[in-house]
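Appendix C reproduces, verbatim, an entry submitted by the partner laboratory led by Prof. M.T., so that reviewers can inspect both the input and the predicted structure.
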Amino acid sequence: MNVLKYDPENFAASIELADLYVKSGDLNSAYKYYRMASEKDPRNVEVLAKLAECYHIAGQWDDVKKITARIVSLSPGGVTQAQAHHYLGQAYYVEQNYEKAAEQFRRVRDFDATNLDAVLSLALIEHQHLKAQSEAQLSLQLLLDAAADENSSAADRAEAEIRSAKFYAATGDNTQAEKHYK
Protein backbone atom coordinates (compact mmCIF):
# COMPACT_ATOMS: atom_id res chain seq x y z
CA MET A 1 0.00 0.00 0.00
CA ASN A 2 3.07 2.23 0.02
CA VAL A 3 2.70 3.23 -3.62
CA LEU A 4 -0.76 4.68 -3.05
CA LYS A 5 0.37 6.18 0.24
CA TYR A 6 3.07 8.20 -1.52
CA ASP A 7 1.24 8.64 -4.82
CA PRO A 8 -2.55 8.43 -4.31
CA GLU A 9 -3.16 9.23 -7.98
CA ASN A 10 -1.17 6.22 -9.24
CA PHE A 11 -3.57 4.70 -11.75
CA ALA A 12 -1.66 1.45 -12.34
CA ALA A 13 -1.30 0.73 -8.62
CA SER A 14 -5.05 1.14 -8.09
CA ILE A 15 -5.82 -1.36 -10.85
CA GLU A 16 -3.19 -3.87 -9.78
CA LEU A 17 -4.36 -3.72 -6.18
CA ALA A 18 -7.97 -4.21 -7.28
CA ASP A 19 -6.87 -7.19 -9.40
CA LEU A 20 -5.23 -8.72 -6.31
CA TYR A 21 -8.40 -8.23 -4.30
CA VAL A 22 -10.46 -9.97 -7.00
CA LYS A 23 -8.07 -12.95 -6.95
CA SER A 24 -8.34 -13.16 -3.17
CA GLY A 25 -12.15 -12.90 -3.30
CA ASP A 26 -12.37 -9.52 -1.56
CA LEU A 27 -14.78 -7.91 -4.02
CA ASN A 28 -15.65 -4.96 -1.77
CA SER A 29 -12.03 -3.83 -1.74
CA ALA A 30 -11.74 -4.52 -5.48
CA TYR A 31 -14.77 -2.29 -6.13
CA LYS A 32 -13.15 0.49 -4.15
CA TYR A 33 -9.91 0.48 -6.15
CA TYR A 34 -11.54 -0.06 -9.55
CA ARG A 35 -13.84 2.89 -8.78
CA MET A 36 -10.79 4.97 -7.82
CA ALA A 37 -9.14 4.09 -11.13
CA SER A 38 -12.38 4.80 -12.99
CA GLU A 39 -12.61 8.24 -11.37
CA LYS A 40 -9.06 8.98 -12.54
CA ASP A 41 -9.89 7.88 -16.10
CA PRO A 42 -13.69 7.69 -16.54
CA ARG A 43 -13.43 6.75 -20.23
CA ASN A 44 -11.16 3.74 -19.66
CA VAL A 45 -13.31 0.82 -20.82
CA GLU A 46 -10.82 -1.79 -19.59
CA VAL A 47 -11.24 -0.56 -16.02
CA LEU A 48 -15.00 -0.41 -16.45
CA ALA A 49 -14.95 -3.99 -17.78
CA LYS A 50 -13.05 -5.13 -14.68
CA LEU A 51 -15.59 -3.38 -12.47
CA ALA A 52 -18.44 -4.99 -14.43
CA GLU A 53 -16.77 -8.37 -13.97
CA CYS A 54 -16.73 -7.86 -10.19
CA TYR A 55 -20.42 -7.02 -10.20
CA HIS A 56 -21.01 -10.04 -12.43
CA ILE A 57 -19.19 -12.36 -10.03
CA ALA A 58 -21.24 -10.97 -7.14
CA GLY A 59 -24.50 -11.26 -9.08
CA GLN A 60 -25.20 -7.53 -8.76
CA TRP A 61 -27.13 -7.38 -12.03
CA ASP A 62 -28.37 -3.78 -11.79
CA ASP A 63 -24.77 -2.61 -11.38
CA VAL A 64 -23.70 -4.88 -14.26
CA LYS A 65 -26.27 -3.21 -16.50
CA LYS A 66 -25.22 0.32 -15.50
CA ILE A 67 -21.50 -0.28 -16.06
CA THR A 68 -21.93 -2.24 -19.28
CA ALA A 69 -24.18 0.49 -20.69
CA ARG A 70 -21.28 2.91 -20.13
CA ILE A 71 -18.85 0.51 -21.81
CA VAL A 72 -21.12 0.15 -24.84
CA SER A 73 -21.50 3.92 -25.15
CA LEU A 74 -17.74 4.52 -24.86
CA SER A 75 -16.48 1.63 -26.97
CA PRO A 76 -18.00 1.20 -30.42
CA GLY A 77 -16.44 -2.22 -30.94
CA GLY A 78 -13.91 -4.73 -29.85
CA VAL A 79 -13.51 -7.34 -27.17
CA THR A 80 -14.55 -5.07 -24.33
CA GLN A 81 -17.88 -4.29 -25.95
CA ALA A 82 -18.50 -7.97 -26.72
CA GLN A 83 -17.77 -8.75 -23.06
CA ALA A 84 -20.19 -6.00 -22.00
CA HIS A 85 -22.96 -7.44 -24.18
CA HIS A 86 -22.25 -10.88 -22.73
CA TYR A 87 -22.64 -9.57 -19.18
CA LEU A 88 -25.83 -7.74 -20.17
CA GLY A 89 -27.20 -10.93 -21.69
CA GLN A 90 -26.54 -12.79 -18.46
CA ALA A 91 -28.15 -10.04 -16.39
CA TYR A 92 -31.28 -10.06 -18.53
CA TYR A 93 -31.37 -13.87 -18.41
CA VAL A 94 -31.31 -13.85 -14.61
CA GLU A 95 -34.18 -11.36 -14.70
CA GLN A 96 -36.01 -13.74 -17.09
CA ASN A 97 -36.10 -11.09 -19.79
CA TYR A 98 -35.31 -13.60 -22.53
CA GLU A 99 -35.89 -11.30 -25.50
CA LYS A 100 -33.34 -8.77 -24.24
CA ALA A 101 -30.94 -11.55 -23.20
CA ALA A 102 -31.11 -13.08 -26.68
CA GLU A 103 -30.54 -9.66 -28.25
CA GLN A 104 -27.37 -9.18 -26.21
CA PHE A 105 -26.06 -12.68 -26.99
CA ARG A 106 -26.71 -12.03 -30.70
CA ARG A 107 -24.56 -8.91 -30.44
CA VAL A 108 -21.77 -10.96 -28.89
CA ARG A 109 -22.13 -13.52 -31.69
CA ASP A 110 -21.96 -10.71 -34.25
CA PHE A 111 -18.67 -9.53 -32.73
CA ASP A 112 -17.24 -13.01 -32.25
CA ALA A 113 -18.98 -16.08 -33.67
CA THR A 114 -16.45 -18.26 -31.83
CA ASN A 115 -17.63 -17.10 -28.39
CA LEU A 116 -18.89 -20.51 -27.31
CA ASP A 117 -20.64 -19.36 -24.14
CA ALA A 118 -22.62 -16.64 -25.87
CA VAL A 119 -23.59 -18.79 -28.86
CA LEU A 120 -24.70 -21.68 -26.64
CA SER A 121 -26.59 -19.33 -24.33
CA LEU A 122 -28.34 -17.81 -27.33
CA ALA A 123 -29.25 -21.21 -28.75
CA LEU A 124 -30.68 -22.37 -25.42
CA ILE A 125 -32.69 -19.18 -24.92
CA GLU A 126 -34.05 -19.35 -28.46
CA HIS A 127 -35.03 -22.98 -28.06
CA GLN A 128 -36.30 -23.09 -24.47
CA HIS A 129 -37.78 -19.66 -23.97
CA LEU A 130 -38.46 -18.10 -27.34
CA LYS A 131 -39.41 -21.34 -29.09
CA ALA A 132 -37.36 -20.36 -32.11
CA GLN A 133 -36.01 -23.76 -33.14
CA SER A 134 -34.60 -22.62 -36.49
CA GLU A 135 -32.81 -19.66 -34.84
CA ALA A 136 -31.31 -22.00 -32.25
CA GLN A 137 -30.06 -24.36 -34.94
CA LEU A 138 -28.62 -21.44 -36.90
CA SER A 139 -26.72 -20.30 -33.80
CA LEU A 140 -25.32 -23.79 -33.32
CA GLN A 141 -24.36 -24.06 -36.98
CA LEU A 142 -22.49 -20.75 -36.75
CA LEU A 143 -20.67 -22.09 -33.72
CA LEU A 144 -19.67 -25.28 -35.53
CA ASP A 145 -18.70 -23.39 -38.69
CA ALA A 146 -16.45 -21.06 -36.70
CA ALA A 147 -14.81 -24.03 -34.98
CA ALA A 148 -14.29 -25.76 -38.34
CA ASP A 149 -12.22 -22.81 -39.59
CA GLU A 150 -8.75 -23.90 -40.71
CA ASN A 151 -7.20 -21.72 -38.00
CA SER A 152 -9.15 -23.46 -35.23
CA SER A 153 -7.34 -25.99 -33.11
CA ALA A 154 -8.59 -29.52 -32.52
CA ALA A 155 -9.39 -28.48 -28.95
CA ASP A 156 -11.57 -25.59 -30.24
CA ARG A 157 -13.40 -27.95 -32.58
CA ALA A 158 -13.93 -30.47 -29.80
CA GLU A 159 -15.21 -27.74 -27.48
CA ALA A 160 -17.71 -26.59 -30.10
CA GLU A 161 -18.95 -30.17 -30.51
CA ILE A 162 -19.25 -30.54 -26.71
CA ARG A 163 -21.27 -27.32 -26.51
CA SER A 164 -23.54 -28.52 -29.31
CA ALA A 165 -23.98 -31.89 -27.61
CA LYS A 166 -24.87 -30.14 -24.35
CA PHE A 167 -27.42 -28.01 -26.16
CA TYR A 168 -29.14 -31.04 -27.66
CA ALA A 169 -29.01 -32.91 -24.36
CA ALA A 170 -30.59 -29.91 -22.61
CA THR A 171 -33.37 -29.85 -25.19
CA GLY A 172 -34.01 -33.59 -24.83
CA ASP A 173 -32.66 -34.58 -28.25
CA ASN A 174 -30.31 -37.33 -27.11
CA THR A 175 -29.82 -38.69 -30.64
CA GLN A 176 -28.32 -35.38 -31.78
CA ALA A 177 -26.32 -35.05 -28.57
CA GLU A 178 -24.83 -38.51 -29.14
CA LYS A 179 -23.87 -37.59 -32.72
CA HIS A 180 -21.94 -34.56 -31.49
CA TYR A 181 -20.17 -36.52 -28.77
CA LYS A 182 -19.11 -39.21 -31.27
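The mean pLDDT is 81. Additional entries are available on request from the coordinating office.
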